[in-house]
Amino acid sequence: MALHITNAQRAEVLTQALPYIQRYYGKVIVIKYGGNAMINEELKEQVMEDVVLLHLIGVKVVLVHGGGPEITDTLKALGKETVFHNGLRVTDKETADVVQMVLAGKINKTLVNLLEIHGGAAIGLSGLDGHMIKASMKDEALGYVGKIESVDVKPINDLLKNDYIPVISTVGCDDAGNVYNINADTAAAFIAGAMHAERLITMTDIAGILRDKDDPSSIIAEIDIAGARRLFDEGIISGGMVPKVECCIEALNHGVESVTILDGRVPHAILIETLTDEGAGTMVVKESKK
After folding, report:
1. Ordered strands of the 133-137 beta sheet
2. What pLDDT tens digit does each residue of the chain (290 aa) get?
3. Is the separation of the CB atoms in 167 and 191 below 8 Å?
């Protein structure tokens, strides 16, 4: 049954969002898009709506995306086995070609098209464009998995100045022209840092940082770097959350004001996080003011 909302209630919602609109107007917010919100078609539509709405109220949104599951599916369709080493995809030359094709091609242009359909003006870039993401081989055992050496955000800033939403696929390159598969969380952290973004929002498939991994209600609403380090030592932040939180710290140390690990399974999570008091994940800050 559809929920009936009166015009007065709609006006109240808009009024409550006003301080947040004023706070983020003209500011850069980098959103790392991935996880279930990228696979579930209904959630994907809602993410695109959220990004376009923020763009239309004057927020400079930069959308950075991965696409691991789709890369795996494409490799499988080509009869190529996916191998992981320490949680990272082993990327030989052929796999690197597939990564470039899927990320910089199909996924990137699909997202650009969706943003345009919802009323946004978007242009897709990859880390190869303008040699934006310079990388080197992270580990010979992983092949063409990249370690970021530098990020040149001029192409992104050029698009923002012309009122476009930049959509960035995370492949990098070196001076010899080799193409590298770059972790999307890492790329988003480096890009947000280089842009001195107001916020980095990284979408994931859990509620946020939990004190008890089996209890979603134990979410930590806000934590600073020192607190996160303690949770590393205590083993509370473990497994796949370790690199995500490390990327948050990386972004903060490079000048980002705050980073949120966002529950991408929540409908319109981006708007809830940016335009309401409620929030939808864990905010990581450099130093707690409490």
Report:
1. 146-151, 133-137, 171-173, 179-181
2. 345 668 787 787 788 888 889 999 999 999 999 877 788 888 899 999 999 999 999 999 999 998 888 888 999 999 988 888 766 788 899 999 999 999 999 999 999 999 999 999 999 999 999 999 999 999 888 999 999 999 999 999 999 999 999 999 999 999 999 999 998 999 999 999 999 999 999 998 888 888 887 787 888 888 999 999 998 888 888 777 888 888 899 899 988 988 999 888 888 889 988 988 777 788 998 887 76
3. no
CATH number of 26-285: 3.40.1160.10
**Upper half-sphere CA count for residue 212 (Cβ side, 13 Å):** 5
Q: What is the 3-state secondary structure (H, E, C) of 172-216?
A: EECCCCCEEECCHHHHHHHHHHHCCCCEEEEEECCCCCECCCCCH
182 neighbors 148 (Cβ within 8 angstroms) = yes
**Cβ-proximal residues to 109 (8 Å cutoff; 6+ apart), any chain:** 124
Amino acid at 227: G
Which of 210, 192, 206 is closest to 248 using CA atoms? 192
Cα 44 from chain centroid (whole Å): 13
Residue of 155, 159, 160, 251 whose CA lies nearest to 201: 251
Q: Supply the residues annotated as catalytic.
A: 32, 35, 68, 185, 244
* DSSP β-bridge partners for residue 17: none
